[in-house]
Amino acid sequence: MSGKIITISSGKGGVGKSTTTANLGIALALLGKSVICIDADIGLRNLDVMLGLENRIVYDIINVVTKQCSLRKALVRDKHCSNLALLPAAQICDKSAISEDEMERIAREAAEQADFVFIDSPAGIEHGFRYAVKPADLVLLVTNPEVPAVRDADRVIGLLEAAGRAPVQLIINRLNPELVRRDVMLDADSIVNLLAIKLVGIVPEDPAILIAGNRGQPVVLDKQSLAGKSFRNIGRRLTGEEIPFMSLQAPSWLQRIFRFQR
Amino acid sequence: MNQFIVIKGTPQGLRLQPRSNNWEQVLNTLQHSLQEAGDFFRGGRVILELSPQHSLNEVTLATLRELVEKYELTLWAVTGGNLKVQRLVRQQGLRTKLPQPPVPRRDAAAKEANAQLVERTLRSGQRLQATQHVILVGDVNPGGEIVANGNIIVWGRVLGTAHAGATGDRFATIRALELNPAQLRIAGLITRSPEGTKPRPSEPEIAYIQENSIVVEPWSGGGK
Ligand SMILES: Nc1ncnc2c1ncn2[C@@H]1O[C@H](COP(=O)(O)OP(=O)(O)O)[C@@H](O)[C@H]1O
Ligand SMILES: [Mg+2]
Description:
The complex is a heterodimer.
Chain A: E1 4-9, H1 17-30, E2 35-39, H2 47-50, H3 61-65, H4 71-74, E3 76-77, E4 84-87, H5 100-113, E5 116-120, H6 127-133, E6 138-143, H7 147-162, E7 168-175, H8 177-181, H9 188-195, E8 198-204, H10 207-215, H11 226-238, H12 253-261
Parallel strand pairs in A: 1-5, 1-6, 2-4, 2-5, 6-7, 7-8
Antiparallel strand pairs in A: 3-4
Helix pairs in contact in A: 1-11, 5-6
Chain B: E1 5-10, E2 13-18, H1 23-37, E3 45-49, H2 58-70, E4 74-79, H3 83-91, H4 108-111, E5 115-119, E6 127-130, E7 133-137, E8 145-148, E9 152-158, E10 161-164, E11 174-179, E12 183-186, E13 189-192, E14 205-210, E15 213-218
Parallel strand pairs in B: 2-3, 3-4, 5-7, 6-8, 7-9, 8-10, 9-11, 10-12
Antiparallel strand pairs in B: 1-2, 11-14, 12-13, 14-15
Helix pairs in contact in B: 1-2
The structure holds adenosine-5'-diphosphate and magnesium ion (MG).
């Protein structure tokens, strides 16, 4: 078997890459797929915390690189879904401890054992970003509806296109429909229009995500949460299902004025 | 479509097209729209576009002027009125015509210099540099840059920076389906878009040098 390798990337930090990785990992596991999440943010690991697996870690990705243990042995089984496993980042090393080729080798090996492999990329466009996207069959770019995040996303798309890398698709995270309506936040249409890549999902701003991250209980498990539903929908889209987008936004007054004038 | 006045924001200025001779209603509607737009148009120029059927007296003109100035706009030109209106407008020190692009005075060789055709999106951090003219089919995104020693034509949106005549050709032009740049440069001149204004739907436009500054106006095709 050879599963699909999907790297979650962003350029700008703090936009929700790890949140997205944890939630999509569980979303696909809930759909019955076998999933391995690789925390590639070496030195700053936190995917384990978001999944509530911190206290179960014995080995990490660097132990696998240095052949101190096998991949299978380093994987931490998720407590929510038995078909989801995490390959944790190392805490004490930095990103230079792993090369692009080594990451590729580990990701391919993981793909032999799972339907989906998610790689949680570090922020930035340096070495950590490059090794995270190297093995990808698909890059999911996470951005927030704010100008600096979109600018960085555009830069990352440019780098991936120039390198002839995997196709890139977009997730807009932390959209606040009320702020969009008041015309103080970028709306999804103008972001997609600018970045000119396929949109796979819009995740609303949701305080439940913060709480969920702290508790190690990702929001995708919460049936009531709108953000959780967005992640479940993105998961289904990744399996090839056509799921219509939920309606989150109303047109701004400016858009209305211009529509009126034309 | 409003029954009394149509208002269009363009880089050249705010274009007002009255649809009625009932000036009281026209000015009322205008006041209402400016109020609603808040700071959006502030600091801009206003162009009143009349048809020959419009009447306009001194008092109405003064009222309009006062009204737009209240919103920190400047009445710049009144175009298209009949002869009487035009005389009044000139008396008030306003333009009756918008500046036209200069007739290119370049030699045939320069005019027919080769153009490079590029089909892609210039994304943030990317720069396209051409030694002659360049035609880009795609957008120049914010943070992207297109530079040519000759003219630039963008069949798309310019949201980043464009520099035509980069080696000093002051007759160089920049044309785009939508010009909403962070910065435009022609030869040694630079303009930037006013701070705080938001991009708006737009029509094709051309930028060129006139009287030592860069002007932007609708591009209706053709050789200008
Ligand atoms: N949709 C959302 N609504 C509210 N908070 C969010 C959302 N997505 C992410 N966050 C919060 O943003 C912070 C950064 O998220 P994280 O996933 O760690 O980003 P990254 O991995 O890109 O650095 C976290 O505190 C997280 O709880
Ligand atoms: Mg992270």
